[in-house]
Amino acid sequence: MIGYICTVDVRFGADTLRRAYEDEKARTREWGHVVARLYVRRIDTLYAAESAQTLRALQSLRFHALTGQRRGQYALDLGPAYRLIVTFQDRAMTVAQVEEVSKHYDD
């Protein structure tokens, strides 16, 4: 990412998620303007973070661990109805993989 000191290595679990990050039309078509804009902000925040601890300190993200069948995954809010689901690939929580964008209660 140009212009950032990347301490969190961000990976995408699917090409569609990477394409959505890189292509405004693709993300807007998929989720609408508001969620698309927040998606880019959240990915940029992941890139800029030092680790998951940094994300926890930013209360507006509502970054939290998930439970039940989603144990081991974490969520960041994308507005009232959507959330960004990520997993961390290392113990230091510095390698984040973007897994999906989901409606909050469609699990």
Verbal overview:
Helix 1 packs across helix 2 (24-31) and helix 2 (24-31) crosses helix 3 (33-48). The chain has a single domain, classed as RelE-like (YaeB-like fold, 2-Layer Sandwich), CATH 3.30.2310. The protein is of the alpha+beta class. It contains four helices and five strands; from the N terminus they run βααααββββ. Residues 1-6 have low confidence and may be disordered.
Helix content: 25-40%
- The CATH homologous superfamily is called RelE-like
Radius of gyration of CA atoms, rounded to a whole number: 13 Å
Largest sheet: 5 strands, mixed
Share of residues in strands = 25-35%
Question: Gist?
Answer:
Strand 3 and strand 4 (82-88) form a beta hairpin.
What tags apply to this protein structure?
single chain; 107 residues; alpha+beta; YaeB-like fold; five-stranded mixed beta sheet; globular
Write the SSE topology:
Blueprint: E1 9-12, H1 15-22, H2 24-31, H3 33-48, H4 52-57, E2 64-65, E3 73-77, E4 82-88, E5 95-103
Parallel strand pairs: 1-5
Antiparallel strand pairs: 2-3, 3-4, 4-5
